[in-house]
Amino acid sequence: MRGLSFVILLAQLVALNVFSQPSPHGDKLKLKCDGCHINSDFTTIVIKKDSFDHNNNNFTGFPLIGLHQKVSCRKCHIDLIFDHAKKECYSCHTDFHSPSVGKDCERCHTPASWIIKSTTHAGQFEVNGKTDCSRCHGFENWKKIKFDHNSSRFKLDGSHAMAKCNECHKEIINEKGRYVQYKFKNIECPSCHL
After folding, report:
1. pTM of the model
2. In terms of DSSP bridges, do strands 130-131 and 171-174 run parallel, antiparallel, or are they unpaired?
3. Radius of gyration over alpha carbons of the chain, in Å?
4. For 46, which DSSP code?
5. Cα–Cα distance between 171 and 180 in angstroms, integer?
6. pLDDT (tens digit, 9 = 90+) per residue, 71-106?
């Protein structure tokens, strides 16, 4: 009887020790181990790919959309504590614009493609579906424009050379969004001067 009591007590202590172990994933992960793992022999762990949904924004705060779906888990999760993974674009991607345009990458880029397809210019400068920002902007200072108006189809001479940019290039709000109109179909005098 004493032997049986000792075995039961030992089993309870082992169970308490096993189940009170801290999670190797940190104390913020509130899932049971078998929610993601199968313990077939207590030494082999296989991740159940169909039981974990990274796209559940309430759980991860970072849905895997676009090109992020193709990235290896270990690329972002460099250790087993999953909330150590950074969620800001600039923590993984090189910021070529820094510090001129700020850290709001999603203003121009999307997870579907890092190539800019649509910007605050509403596609006015697209050539074959792509926008080459460097035609007007420098990467060392995004706000400093290197555009030469005299190389455009509307040269600035006379009174036009004295005009402020926003006197002609006004903000537009329409189905394309909110943007400044830089390109005009009609540049004849009557289109501005009535």
Report:
1. 0.48
2. unpaired
3. 29
4. E
5. 4
6. 888 888 888 888 888 888 888 888 777 666 677 787
